[in-house]
Amino acid sequence: MRGSAMTAPLNMSRLGLSLQTWAMDVREGFVEITRHSLALLGLVVVLVSLTFVSRPELQASASEVLLGWLEIRQGEVPDTAESGNAAHRSTAKSLKNLTSDQLLVTRWLSRKYRVSSEPLGAVVSEAWAIGERSQLPPSLILAIMAVESRFNPFASGSQGNVGLMQIERKAHVDELSRFGGQLSAFDPLTNLRIGVRHLQALIQQTATLEEALRLYGMSSGQTTEQLYVERVLAEQKLLEKLTERQNTAALSAKDRLPPQ
C-alpha cells in the first residue's frame, strides 16, 4: 500500500513535466514558424518590388486592378449621407404652383429653348419674385438669361463667365462666399440673384437701361455690345406681348360674362 501511495505523486510529477516540456516545444515551434514566415514574406515583398521596378508595365496593371477593385467596393457601400428625397435638392417647381402669366411664359420658353418645364418654372418664379423686390421687369431678367445662356445653368462663356446670368466669379467673390463659395455660381437661383444685383448696380451707374445692358454684355464677354442690347430688348418685348395677349383675352372673356 505504501509503494502504491508513493508511486501516484511520482506519476503526477512526471505528467506535469511532460506537459511543461510539450508546451515549451509548441511555443518554440510557433516562434520558429512565425520567424521563418516573416522572413519568407519579406523575401516575397523584396522580389515583388524588384519585379515592379524592372517592369513598370506590371506596376501600371496592378494599379489599375487595385483601383478597379476599390471603385467596385465603393459602389457597393450605400451612401446614407446623401440618401433621402432628391426632389428636395433639385431646382424644380411644380407647374401647378405657378401663376397664369408664369405658366404661360414657362411653357413658351420651354418650347423655344428646349428646356424642361419644371426647372424652368422655378427660374421663372424666382425672376418674378426678384423683379418685385428690385423693381425690374421679370421679362427683362428672363430676356437676359435667354441671350446669355439659353437657360443653361452650366453654361460657360469665353471669358470664364458661368451660369444662367453669365456672372464673373472673380468679380463676385464676396457675394458668392455668402452662398457657400465660388461653386455656388452654378446654382441657378444663386446665379440669378447675383446677376440681377449686378444689373441693378449698372443701372444706378448709368443714365439709360440700354447703357446698363451694354456694360452687362461687356462684363459677360459679349463681342458686339450693341447687338446684345438689341437681342435682350427684343426678347423682353416678345415676353411682354405674350402676357399682354393673355391678360387681354382674360379681360375680354370676363366682359362677356352675363351680369349677375
Explain the overall architecture.
The chain is mostly helical and 260 residues long. The protein has two domains: 61 residues; 162 residues, Orthogonal Bundle (Lysozyme). Helices cover 71% and strands 0% of the residues. The protein contains nine helices and no strands. Helix 1 packs across helix 2 and helix 4 runs parallel beside helix 7. The N and C termini lie far apart (132 Å).
Write the layout of secondary structure elements.
Layout (H helix, E strand, L loop, with lengths): L1 H53 L1 H21 L23 H14 L3 H18 L3 H12 L23 H6 L9 H18 L3 H11 L5 H31 L5
Helix pairs in contact: 1-2, 3-4, 4-5, 4-7, 5-9, 7-8, 8-9
- How many strand segments? 0
SSE arrangement, N to C? HHHHHHHHH
Measured as a percent range, the helix fraction is over 70%
CATH fold category name of the largest domain: Lysozyme
How many domains? The number is 2
**CATH class category label of the largest domain:** Mainly Alpha
Please count the helical segments: 9
Portion of residues in beta strands equals under 5%
